[in-house]
Amino acid sequence: MNVLVTGGSGFIGANLVRLLLAERPGWRIVNLDKLTYAGNPENLADLAENPRYRFVRADICNGELVADLFRTERIDGVMHLAAESHVDRSILAPSVFIETNVRGSQVLLEAAREFGVKRFLHVSTDEVYGSLGPTGLFTEETPVAPSSPYSASKAASDLLALAYAHTFRVPVVVTRCSNNYGPYQFPEKLIPLMIANAVRDLPLPVYGDGMNVRDWIHVEDHCRGLLAAFEDGKDGEVYNFGASSERHNIHIVKQVLDLVGKPHSLVQYVKDRPGHDRRYAIDSRKAQAKLGWAPRRRFEDALAETVRWYVERRAWWERIISGEYLRYYEKQYGARR
Ligand code: NAD
Ligand code: DAU
Predict the structure, then answer these.
(1) What is the pLDDT of residue 337?
(2) Is the Cβ atom of 124 under 6 angstroms away from ligand 2?
(3) Phi and psi for 196 in degrees, rounded to 5?
(4) What three-state secondary structure class fits 145?
């Protein structure tokens, strides 16, 4: 089976490519990634000589190149992860989110339609459902009501993917997952950002009152869910993934400080994210019942392991936290203090 993974040099993509190569010895993986600021070839550098892996640096919006790749690589299935993925950046500069997340997804769907792939897995997010009050969970039936340019662009591409399933019978499956954590996450996201700042004794910027809730899942559990949905999902269906690990942001930030061995006085409350969703929580009973999937990692153990991973790989994230990222950090946090 020849599988195209888009965005394989990013956080979830890199973890997924490793899982697929290990778990499906008969598969060949083609990783199509533009290497934006979030894509890091170092994440998969050790696979360079692997005959079952090929990296192609390109933009998913380039229709000609994408069609050529489907033809020459005889692509049987697509796992589409490439995206602009950070909410704060979508507030600073939304256009590229529409270009990559909406137009790029349509280019891939069109190629999938033309070349008749057996599966198109569209990897999406619980953020398309908007924000919850203090109780309740997102199910697959929850209406789509995105709040940020990022989540609106993801919702648009979800609907486009489902429309291609309905109208053109492209074998699309859509997955919506909660907040991931684990190795190789770009240090602009909550957990790696807080670890990197704690290690360097820098303030830990907590938005608003720190009482927003996210539902955390280890990236390995998500990737096993993606594989299950790819193989056993039903055409035109949506599956939610989450690990029932709701936590207030401030709780996590203090846990990170404890694990790194730094004082809670490093916490710095800053101006809130505009339109900040208050609470996410996922009901993943459908995926558990229909795909035979269940999360395996316990949050507290996996968070401790994740903190160790970043502490031991300071060189990995220090190389990233330079150049363009420094300019973004100043723009995002400079005016918030
Ligand atoms: P990421 O930002 O770490 O990686 C995105 C990757 O896509 C990068 O390697 C980047 O170079 C690539 N990319 C961006 N634009 C591209 C383009 N035009 N052409 C080709 N490649 C391009 O993101 P992530 O956190 O790994 O998320 C992957 C996917 O999973 C996204 O679709 C995201 O919406 C979804 N998702 C993420 C989470 C999470 O918690 N991180 C949760 C649910 C769903
Ligand atoms: O729910 C899934 C989504 O999770 C994915 O679709 C997105 O790609 C991913 O980035 C993530 O979105 P969030 O906005 O929830 O993640 P982020 O790590 O940016 O923020 C998590 C929470 O922490 C959120 O409530 C905002 C808060 N936060 C974040 C940062 C970066 C802070 O308080 N301070 C910060 O500096």
Answers:
(1) 63
(2) no
(3) -65, -40
(4) coil
Contact 27/119 with Cβ under 8 angstroms?
no
Mutate to test the pocket of ligand 1, among 4, 9, 12, 86 (most ligand atoms within 8 A of CB): 12
Please give the single-letter amino acid code of residue 104: G
The pLDDT tens digits of the residues spanning 181-230 come to: 999 999 999 999 999 999 999 999 999 999 999 999 999 999 999 999 99
Cα distance between residue 198 and residue 25, in whole Å: 40
Does the pTM of the predicted model rise above 0.90? yes
Question: For 262, phi and psi rounded to 5 degrees?
Answer: -120, 155
| 33 CA distance to ligand 1 middle (Å) | 10
Q: If you measure from the C-alpha of residue 122 to the centroid of ligand 1, how many angstroms do you get, rounded to a whole number?
A: 12
Token pair of 221 as six digits:
């559990």
From 9, 36, 157, give the residue whose CB has the most ligand 1 atoms within 8 Å, as the site to mutate.
36
**Whether residue 132 has pLDDT greater than 90:** yes
The angle subtended at Cα 290 by Cα 284 and Cα 294, nearest 5°, is 50
Contact yes or no for 101/34 (Cβ under 8 A): no
Residues 72 and 64: beta-carbon distance below 8 Å: no
In order of their start, the domains of the chain are 2-181+217-242+280-297+323-336 (3.40.50.720)
